[in-house]
Amino acid sequence: MGLFTFRESRSTVELLHSRVALAAWRRRIAGSSLHFVPTMGALHAGHARLIERAALSMAGSLAPRVLVSVFVNPLQFGPHEDFERYPRDLEADAALAAAAGADALFAPSVGEMVPQGAEGLTRVQPPRALQQSLCGSSRPGHFDGVATVVCRLFALVRPDRAFFGEKDWQQLLILRRVVADLGLPVALRGVATVREADGLARSSRNRYLSAEQRRGAVALPRALQAAQAVHGRGEREAEPLLGGVRAALERAGLCVDYVQLVEAHTLKPLHRAQGLALLAAAVQCGPSRLIDHVFLMSRPPIVAIDGPAGAGKSTVTRALARQLGLVYLDTGAMYRALTWWVQRQGADPADPAAVASWLEGIDLRLEAGPDGEQRVWVNGHEVTAAIRSLEVTVAVSAVAAHACVREALTRQQQALGLRGGLVAEGRDIGTAVFPDAECKVFLTATVAERARRRARDLAERGFPVPSLAELEEQIAERDRLDSTREVAPLRQAEDASELVTDGMAIEAVIDALVALFRERVPEEAWPGLQPESA
């Protein structure tokens, strides 16, 4: 059984042309989850991918209803741009939306969307810092117009989720910021760019191109991909990366608007590619303005998941790693394994000298078993099950608090992370072990919730189960010890997102973690594993 299920295509969609019709349709689907795909029409395979993704439902949950909007937004076009001739074919758009799994299509007129006229409309102005580079610098007012109309659509549609293409990365980044700043109750999801067979990004404006212009347009993705390959061979300086792209575009006869290297989330110019960088370009090819980009990463991403004991980190981290195609690193198992070894030797877990003596020469290995689960070995002994005992659980905080232990195991964990590609969980992953992790999450739950989970886990493993009151007391004490120790105390990293999991099913927690990951690492940078059908 996969994590997601797919909806079959439909033969028709319900067409909604007015706000009144939209409101009536919205009332009819009350109680259903609503996923929204806002477009300007002239739909193509890229839009179909957005709709298909919107139609996905979590396994075991009801399928969401999917609404697509088609509105050619006059507020986002400049004085000499192509608003009047922008392609419009509502019949074809409705057919494509239906085939991709949409339930309804909202196609309002300008009068419906802006009844008081553009001059009388309340405007949304995203931060100027996100508009000073890329398309924002060459299309003044464009993103103000986008944000204003998208916010109006959100207010009318009231979706749970909205789906946007990563092709317009600056737009997606700006809309995420607007949603966060205004506290809008909608989650934004990005979907990787869909390309033609020769690499050209799908775009409604591609249809403007003549056959000759279409052949020349492919120089844009090829130039960017060539620069990505140069970066992969070790080039980090911006000048040669940008110069190579610009030269290739000019040789192809394309009129270059910009070629820029920016930090992927702030869009600030970079002199050197570091972290997650965006190499983007815009060109004029005949009548069409085309944009494209590649993401540059020096290593695969690292996800750091911290949080208190019993928050369910191990369970969801393993599942998250599988879904993202990353390696699961259970750092807590390393501390538990050392605690088990110390106890086996009869040493006092609270005595740092005694513990340090058993650190020397310890052979601690983490391996993936045939079932995909992590196996833990200490000096030739498999201790996967033994380290989950109540005896180890009670003593592990004392062992983990010793500076010698933190230093030794942190070095080992950082060595494992040099190549990236990890999902690691523990107490200090985002603060001490991998402070440069691309995605940091502080996963937590109330003490009462964690005590209930711990009781269930002990029972399933065949261990004695103390009373809930006793378990709550143990968990609260461990929280105190973990958060007050001198070396690497348990705390939320400043740039970590908090996720409180009380009342959430495992699938919902994983879905939330994937969403947080995708806010930091786009699909184009790290595709991961695609959802499987049930």
Regarding quaternary structure, what we see is single chain
CATH topology of the largest domain: Rossmann fold
Strand tally, please? 19
Parts with pLDDT < 50 across at least 5 consecutive residues:
none
Q: pLDDT average, as an integer? A: 92
CATH class assignment of the largest domain: Alpha Beta
* Helix run count: 19
Tally the structural domains.
Answer: 3
CATH architecture of the largest domain: 3-Layer(aba) Sandwich
Please give the alpha-carbon distance between the first and last residues: 5 Å
**Structural class label:** alpha/beta
Q: Which descriptors apply to this entry?
A:
Rossmann fold; 6-stranded parallel β-sheet; 18% strand; 534 residues; Pantoate--beta-alanine Ligase, Chain: A,domain 2; 40% helix; alpha/beta; 5-stranded parallel β-sheet
Report on this model:
The protein folds into 3 domains: 4-191, Rossmann fold (3-Layer(aba) Sandwich), CATH 3.40.50.620; 204-297, Pantoate-beta-alanine ligase, C-terminal domain (Pantoate--beta-alanine Ligase, Chain: A,domain 2, 2-Layer Sandwich); 302-520, Rossmann fold, CATH 3.40.50. Helix content is 40%, strand content 18%. The chain is built from 19 helices and 19 strands. It has helices spanning 19-28, 45-54, 90-100, 110-113, 135-138, 142-157, 169-182, 211-217, 219-232, 238-251, 313-324, 331-344, 352-359, 390-400, 403-416, 429-433, 447-461, 468-484, 506-520; strands at residues 4-5, 14-16, 34-39, 57-58, 65-70, 104-106, 161-165, 187-191, 255-263, 276-285, 288-297, 302-306, 327-330, 364-368, 374-378, 381-382, 422-426, 439-444, 497-500. A hairpin with a 2-residue loop joins strand 15 and strand 16. The mean pLDDT is 92.
